[in-house]
């Protein structure tokens, strides 16, 4: 059974993340979306809310499960029996950070591989931060995130 973890902050999940997730789900038997549960990081959504939104957006993906995790990613991979970490790469600007994270994870546990999937060009500009910024200024985010997420982001930024 080949299990992979697609880890991230997902505050919130975007269509770019979803595309990487779907492609990973076609390569592995199971993909676990690991939502970082970092209380120090002041997100727009709590880890529980992020998990709920991702569950809603992925209910048609049978081999995908969503969980949040604390601590080291490689320890979470061990806990769930995953031998691979999935990361999306949008552009060369992502590369330096991703290489450092790969090196740290590989140093900690070389049995867990990192698999990089390139974002589709149409998503190369897309990030959770871009979505939040556009929403704060009243821009249209409907084609950047799943419909349930767009609704929640709009509600949340209007409250602030
Ligand atoms: O979507 P992000 O914010 O780029 O995801 C980063 C994430 C959650 C994958 C990364 O911060 C992480 O793995 N955090 C857990 C702590 C850890 O294992 N750090 C060691 C690698 S540097």
What does this structure look like?
The chain contains six helices and five strands, in the order βαβαβαβαβαα. It is α/β, with parallel strands linked by helices and 160 residues long. Strands 3-2-1-4-5 form a five-stranded parallel sheet, with helices on both faces. Helix 4 links the parallel strand 4 (84-89) and strand 5. The N and C termini lie far apart (45 Å). The model has no long low-confidence stretch (mean pLDDT 96). Bound molecules: 4'-phosphopantetheine (PNS).
Keywords:
five-stranded parallel beta sheet, about 160 residues, about 20% strand, 6 helices, binds 4'-phosphopantetheine, alpha/beta
How is this fold's topology laid out?
Blueprint: E1 3-8, H1 15-25, E2 30-36, H2 47-57, E3 64-69, H3 73-80, E4 84-89, H4 92-108, E5 113-118, H5 128-136, H6 147-159
The structure holds 4'-phosphopantetheine.
4'-phosphopantetheine binds next to strand 1 and helix 4.
